[in-house]
Amino acid sequence: MFELRDSWVWDFWFADDGERYHLFFLYASKALHNPEDRHYRASIGHAVSSDLRSWTRIEDALVRGVEGAFDDLATWTGSVVRDDSGRWFMFYTGSRLAPAGRNVQRIGYATSPDLVTWTKSADSPVLEADGRWYEKLEEESWHDEAFRDPWVFADPSGEGWHMLITARARQGDPLGRGVVGHARSDDLRRWRLQPPLTHPSANGFGQLEVMEVQLVEGRPVLLFSCLTDHLTAERSAGALGRGGIWAAPAESLLGPFDIAAAYQLTDDRYYVGRLLQERATGAWQLFAFRHTGPSGRFVGGIADPLPVAWNGPRLEILGLDDVEVA
Known about the structure:
Elements: E1 7-16, E2 21-29, E3 43-49, E4 56-62, E5 74-82, E6 88-97, E7 103-112, E8 119-120, E9 147-154, E10 161-168, E11 178-185, E12 191-194, E13 209-216, E14 219-226, H1 233-236, E15 244-249, E16 263-264, E17 270-277, E18 284-290, E19 306-311, E20 314-317
Antiparallel strand pairs: 1-2, 2-3, 3-4, 5-6, 6-7, 7-8, 9-10, 10-11, 11-12, 13-14, 14-15, 15-16, 17-18, 18-19, 19-20
């Protein structure tokens, strides 16, 4: 388990340098008192481990930008990849406040030679919502301009890079507009926004938070998170009583993704599911942060890994019922 005594820890992502695992995480001081205020005080912390269970915190990776920057409110969730030259790229969400306290989200990046010292790119932001395909703040159907949580991976054919993005379509039930946003790049620096890879109709999700696509034992699966307040009534009726971590069938790393057939891996005791294959054993593990405790209040902190396995067409977590969130 990874937690900080004086700070809340929530969204996170990994990098593996071949010797150590690197954990990047959002955190904010508990001196705020209200955990809901953490989002507007988020920084990106950094810890390392050799076994995925015992973590040592090291210097922070990134903090919010100067006034007027695209990330001058907070730095939010991202992902890390390495290019052919060995340079590491961290793609992350930058948040800025708009009028009436709503926020606009854009995507930028930083680079590092060693995963420890990060330099923000002067080119940031490299992507923002395009009203041709994605909902903008002025449409006023949502509490923010949702365009965040970049998940970057190499094209399976070796032709460039792809980014999946938490975004919203411009049409449909406001509680069902969540889509898999998409962008492409040849060099990780210049990006071309594409239409979404899914359609909002009948999917039941207002947003697909912190997406990740992986090949688990050779079978593709899309993970995302969504809480009950952001589900349609139809989807909420079958959501284990409340939202949490979801998995959707996929035909490949680039889809098609069957969001309408998404099923729950957890309820809201856990949030933000990350799949990682252990180097030593080859076993796949699911990580998540502790979201809701028995009192109904936010908990925070990243739980120990849980093994996963396929049960027919569905990915399942082994031993979840034996785990309690304090």
